[in-house]
Design brief:
InterPro entries: Peptide/Ni-bd, SBP_5, SBP_5_dom. The protein contains 16 helices and 20 strands. It is of the alpha+beta class. It has 3 domains: 166 residues, D-Maltodextrin-Binding Protein, domain 2 (3-Layer(aba) Sandwich); 110 residues, Dipeptide-binding Protein, Domain 1 (Dipeptide-binding Protein, domain 1), CATH 3.90.76; 209 residues, Roll (Dipeptide-binding Protein, domain 3), CATH 3.10.105. The chain has a 7-stranded mixed beta sheet, with helices on both faces. The longest helix is centred in the last third of the chain and has 17 residues. It is globular, with a radius of gyration of 23 Å. It starts with 34 loop residues before the first strand and ends with a strand.
């Protein structure tokens, strides 16, 4: 019934050489054991894969849980994970996925087709955070004890990428149903690690899953490490100081004003990796004054991005021309909104701004975003606006954004897959469950164009459609884009195979310590 035009064979080699790191370790080189300590600016809020949209949770989940298909060593491509192979019918309406034999959950129970169906039905629920990514799916069915069938309502060009989402991870059905809340604290999945302890606001401790299926270059089960401690360290300088003092093996999100200093540290390397990330100012279209496009355009014209690139980013990155990161179908044909204070003043006057102060929110301890907010405040005030900078811890600030309890918020977004559809849908489709990623943006033309792009298989046509969406949404002043920022992290040279992939996380299963 199914042809072989998109068969992915299990014989695909899963290399431990990680993208830009290009470290082809031999069995003789690798050392097992030890504890890796990583300082992160984001806090994990949950380990339940179906609901979160914060990177603090997502990046941890990807170390613990696994989807059928997963991002490869660079993040730009895909490779088999819990599905060892799959086939698609010629009309693109039927997919059969063959589960990898012998895989067990961290509690020793075998992975079953029933677990896969349960998990995919959870993520595909229209009310779920990522239900939109599976809107084209008609049904998930069991063919036999090792085969899952996905039947589509219509062709969907992004299915394979959607199945690589963290939210499409396969969980133990029995353990999840027993106590969903407890599962969010200690999930039962098939990934390289499991949660040993979780102290909210402090740290997460991961230990190896004794039943993990992937093998290292030495022929033994991954991971190489005995333990990983992921510390929540929101203050940038504290992460760098901890790296310098040896308290942390890895410091994520190095302050760019200290990047050269970190690079010069003895025994430390600076990682600068391509990303699917955009730093930008969320604007709430559902609250005054940003319910008026003229006001949204005004704050864009009054954003001195040259000053921000120098003072905040120290030359790292690129000024954006889009509302979302540079993923597959980014277009360079969309003209950037220039810095023009006089134009901003005219728009503020035309909009009839009443002088009510605008609250510009930033995360406590995020010095770069605080500096960006200060520069934005100066420009917006020159345009005739009153602006107050307010600070909250990152968890509180993001929760406020989710609830729509904000006006403007300096933050960022990253893509979890290598296809534009995820973020284009999350950010620009106002019919989705996140209200266009908490912006309350709505544009019927954009919603229609996105629907077309999901069904078109031709890459050139998809690029054309996403280019149109980029132009419309960007010039609707969806947000105030600031920078296409690469990942800039510091790590001790004893840490081997460290690499941040374009979708933002790191495969800790492949990391080892040379000591």
């Amino acid at each position: 019934m199914l042809d072989k035009r998109r068969l992915i064979f299990a014989a695909l080699v899963l290399s431990t050489a990680l993208g830009g790191a290009s470290i082809a370790a031999s069995a003789e080189d690798v050392k097992r054991g030890g504890t890796l300590t990583v300082a992160r600016p984001e806090e994990a809020l949950t380990f339940e894969p179906f609901t979160p949209s914060d990177n603090g949770s997502i990046y941890n989940i990807m170390q613990i849980c696994e989807p059928l298909i997963v991002a490869d060593a660079t993040g730009k491509g895909l490779e088999p994970s819990l599905a060892e192979s799959w086939t698609a019918s010629a009309d693109g309406l039927t997919y059969d996925f063959k589960l990898r034999p012998g895989v067990r959950f961290s509690n020793g129970k075998p992975l079953t087709v029933e677990d896969a169906i349960f998990s995919l039905q959870k993520v595909a629920d229209p009310k779920a955070s990522f239900g939109f990514a599976f809107d084209a799916v008609k049904a998930f069915d069991k063919v036999d004890d090792s085969t899952l069938r996905i039947t589509m309502k219509r062709p969907y060009a992004t299915l394979e990428s959607a199945l690589s989402l963290f939210a499409a991870s396969i969980v133990s059905k029995a353990d999840y149903e027993k106590d969903p809340a407890a599962f969010g604290q200690k999930p039962v999945c098939t990934g390289a690690f499991q949660v040993e302890s979780y102290e909210r606001g402090t740290q997460v401790v991961l230990v190896p899953n004794p039943n993990y299926w992937r093998k290292g270059v030495d022929g033994k089960p991954l991971p190489y490490l005995d333990k990983v401690v992921l510390k929540y360290v929101p203050e940038s300088n504290s992460r760098v100081l901890g790296l310098q003092n040896g308290d942390f093996d890895v410091a994520l999100v190095v302050p760019l004003n200290q990047a050269n200093s970190v690079k010069a540290m003895d025994g430390v390397s600076l990682e600068v990796s391509p990303s699917y990330r955009l730093d930008y100012v969320f604007l709430n279209h559902g609250k005054k004054p940003f319910d008026d496009k003229r006001m949204r355009m005004a704050v864009n014209y009054a954003a001195n991005r040259d000053a921000i690139m120098k003072a905040v980013y120290f030359g790292f990155g690129e000024q954006p021309n889009s509302y979302m990161p540079k993923v597959n179908f980014w277009s360079d044909k969309v003209a950037k909104i220039p810095y023009d204070i006089e134009k901003a003043k005219a728009l503020v006057k035309e909009a009839g701004y009443d002088g009510t102060p605008i609250q510009l929110m930033v995360d406590t301890g995020n010095a770069p975003f605080r500096t960006a907010a200060t520069i934005l405040q100066q420009g917006w005030q020159q345009a005739g606006l009153k602006v107050e900078i307010v600070e909250y811890d990152s968890g509180t600030a993001f929760s406020m954004a989710q609830k729509g309890e904000y006006q403007a918020y300096v933050s960022y977004i990253t893509s979890d897959i290598n296809d534009d559809d995820e973020l284009a849908s999350i950010q620009a489709d106002g019919t989705g469950p996140t209200a266009a990623f908490f912006s309350n943006y709505k544009n019927e033309e954009v919603t229609k164009l996105l629907a077309q792009a999901r069904e078109v298989g031709d890459k050139a046509k998809r690029a054309e459609l996403y280019g149109k969406v980029q132009d419309i949404v960007y010039n609707d002043a969806y947000s105030v884009p600031l920078n296409f920022l690469p990942y800039v992290n510091g790590y001790n040279n004893k840490v081997k195979n460290w690499h941040t992939i374009t979708v933002g996380w790191w495969w800790l299963r492949d990391v080892w310590l040379d000591k």
